[in-house]
Amino acid sequence: MFQIASYETYQDGQIIIEEGSYGDWIYQIDEGTIEISKMIDGKKVVIDILQEGEILGELAYITKLPRTATATAVGRTVVGIIDRNFFDHEFNKIPADFQKIFKAVALRLKRTTETIAKAKVS
Fold this sequence. Notes:
By secondary structure, the protein is α+β, with helices and mostly antiparallel strands. It has helices spanning 58-63, 84-91, 96-121, and strands at 4-10, 15-17, 27-40, 43-50, 55-56, 70-82. It has a single domain (4-121), classed as Jelly Rolls, CATH 2.60.120.
């Protein structure tokens, strides 16, 4: 489905994406597992566990905002970095009005995730 530009291998506990950092790469898990977490009031809150075939980094790509969570390898993990030119080309085929809808959904998901994460800490 996606064109992969390159692959990166991470060992257990290595950070793939750091919350608050900027980056526009989207990743697909080729092998392994990734923990998605946020820091809320100084506490780590696990949001999700992603498995092979799942993607991550899409919110920052769509919204052009900093990364909303930290992605950490659980065990040996291999990710494919989706080719940015390919993805831009495919995304730009979508009419501008639909791109706005995707951005609105992504922003709403970001807010919802932050609200849920805060509730987990309380």
